Every structure is written in C-alpha cells, then in structure tokens.
Fold this protein.
Amino acid sequence: MAARVAPHWRLATGALVFALGGLACQAIAGIEDRELDVVGSAGSALCDAYCDEVMANCTGEFAVYASRETCLGVCAKLPAGESGDRSGNTVECRRFNAAQAKANGEVDVHCPAAGPGGTLCGGNCEGYCTLLEGVCPAVFDGLTQERCVETCGGLRTLPGFDVEAHHDGDSLNCRLVHVSSATLDAQTHCPHASPAPVNDSPCGDPVGTKPDCKEYCKLNIAACTGELTMYESQKQCEAVCAELALGEVGETTEDTVACRKYHSYSAIAAPSAHCTHAGAGGDGHCGSDNCDAYCLALEKACPAEFASLTASQSCENSCLTIAGGPLDTHQSFEDGDTVQCRMKYLSRQLEDPTATDNCASAVGNGNCQ
C-alpha cells in the first residue's frame, strides 16, 4: 500500500508519543485511525489507484484537485461503487474516466467526470450534495439529499471543471472546488461551499455587480416549488424581472432583483421563510411591502385598469387595504381577494401582453374577488 502523508502536527505528535516508549502502540493505533479517516468506505487501494490516475492524467487547465491529499479526502466521502462502473456517483466511475482521459485523449470530457462533481458519474449536483453532507454537516443543515440536488439545479454551472480557474465566482464549479478543499480544512472552506454565498465568499459575485434576470429566475424556480411557487415559468419570471430595478449584489432589503436573488438563495434551506420575500412582490423584505411592485406591474401590464384605479386614490393606498398588501403576509397565490392573486394575473399578462383575460383579475375582479 502506498505510504500516506499525515499533517505535520500529527506526525510530530506521533513521533513524540513514540519516543515515550511505552506509548508506542498507542501512537501506531492513532496513525492507523487517521489513515482510516482518509481512506473512508472506498478503501485504501481504490483511493490510491484513483488518485494516482486522476493526478497524472488531469493536469493544467484540466486539473480537478489541488493536491493528491485533497483527492484522497474526496475519495473518502464518495461511494466506492463496483469495478467497471461507467455511470453513477462512485469512485469507480471516476477512476474509469480518469483512465479514459489518457486512453483516448478526450481530457475535456473525461477529466470533469473524474473530478469531485462527476458530470458523467451521477452529475455535478449529486457529487456536490454527497460531499457537502459528508464534509460540511453544519452547512448542509436543513437540507436533504433530494432537496439539495433539486435546488442545486438552479445554481450557475460553467462548462468543464478547472480547480484553479473555478476557485472564485458564483458557480457550482466553485462550490465543488471548496467542498473538496473542506475535506482538509472544513473551518475555512465549508462556508465557501455553501449553496447560498456568505459575505465575501469566493463563490459569490462581487458586491456591487448587477444581477442577471435569467440567473435569478433559474434559481428562484429551483428553490421555490409546490405551494411556494413564485412564478409559473422561466419566461414569466423574466418578464416580471424586466420591470424591477436590478440593484446590486449585496442588497438584502431593497425593492430590487438583487434582494430577491439573495432571498432565493436563502430559500434553498428555508423555503417557507424566504420564498415570498424572493417573489415578485417582495413581501416587505425586498421593499417596504408588496404594493410598490404590484403598482409598478399594474401600470406596465394593464395601463387602462391602472388609470381607472388611480382616478379615485393612489394605487399604493388602495393596495395596502387588500389582504396580502403589507409586509410579511406569506400569502399564497391561490385565487381570491389578495394582492398575491392579483400579482399572479399581472405576471401572466407581462408574460403574454396579448392576453385579454388577466387584467380584470389584476384589479380585484374576475378570479381575484
């Protein structure tokens, strides 16, 4: 079996204990225990063989691990699989792809599949979520594997996988780099690997940059589902987003897309608390209430109805008298006399301006009365 290098402080401790004579066996046992921590369920021989191949065959811009030690740490947290695996979230599948990177020269295809995400071996989301739960349980708290994989699909994913080029930036690739590094230093790298970027995280867009409507919508639709669905389609979400102020990354309370994207990230682990904040109205967390966004959408989507409503009083004052108008109402989008019902039909009208049956509901008639 290939020798394994332990962290310097552990080696020093082992040497000191060994020098004390009578405690030599305890030192050896301690080294064996630490080695088992690295080897994990995949087994020493398999992890050694896998890491030898991936470190030799995936280099330069196709490198998937910063070091062999990182590779061993990741290997310890993945299912071993069966010899000959060509698919599935296993070490054996990754080992096959590491070998194929050399055998057929298609490093751009096989090296990402041989890395922590696995691409062809279960998919990046399955690999990421398995590692996140195994390495960063505090960050994983509130999630299940199913929920993690489901919402992971809303994260930005870049082509390929490059451990250096993808060390920074708001992407799943970056999170894979840092969850791999967390196998050696969880305290530093687990916060970086979180699905929701924390302040100053290398896996977040720089504060001050403008959010993108497509990415906000993709994330929101993945994070807010079932009874907490905020938009009925990507197209609808983008139509609503186009009428909102973009704002800047770092905003958490303003009536902007940036704020709504922040709450969409928070909704990954806590959907019931954050989805309504991340939706079209903002629910008083992105803006002071739901009415600013409602009135803005009404004026754009249904100008005749907006003019009729504001002939007697301001849209804002009218909206605040309706259920779901004030902050933190957490109203559903079911039909009935609520601002959320009206926002549903406004969103449909923004998605399809040629429709003729949405604007009545948007002012409290039709289906919203």
User: Anything to note?
Assistant: The chain is about 50% helix and 0% strand. The chain has two domains: 41-193, 213-362.
